[in-house]
Design goal:
- By secondary structure, the protein is of the alpha+beta class.
- It has 2 domains: 1-78, Ribosome hibernation promotion factor-like (Double Stranded RNA Binding Domain), CATH 3.30.160; 80-91 and 116-169, 2-Layer Sandwich (SHC Adaptor Protein), CATH 3.30.505.
- 26% of the residues lie in helices and 25% in strands.
Amino acid sequence: GKLRSNGVVKDCTVHLIVNKNPKVENSHRIEVNVSIVGTTIHASVESPNMYASIDDVGERIARKLVKYKERRLQGWHGGKSMSEDMAQALDELDANEGEGGQEEFTDPEAPEVTKVRSFDLSTPISMEEAIFALDYVDHDFYVYRDDKTDEVNVVYKRNAGGVGLVQPEQ
């Protein structure tokens, strides 16, 4: 399916990666990030053939966009405040997705919340204090309110070493 350029899709990046190591079976990888109003949808596929990877990632992105639309209309992702343009564009994608019936799909691998953590964000602190606090918590991230911007940020321990920062777009 195709989305018209009507302001729903803000940005789309596609990365095609070929691993030249002959021992790697699925050497053709494609990564797609679609930024739509309110979120980013990501999909990646690895296979022995780049054309197959492209076809598969297109189908995955289409399914994820349809799922996002359905959940948004059910009150997830900020409620039923979906704009007319966004709903229409996602409806077109849904119509192009296939001729099958409208069966309700239950994802057996859907994530389930198993623990809830609350953070006191009433007192702003510096990024340096948040990084320091990473050593004293039982997880690899620290949520805090930045003392310079008053925005909620997250510092986290990176798998590759070092510390990462997640902050709102300006």
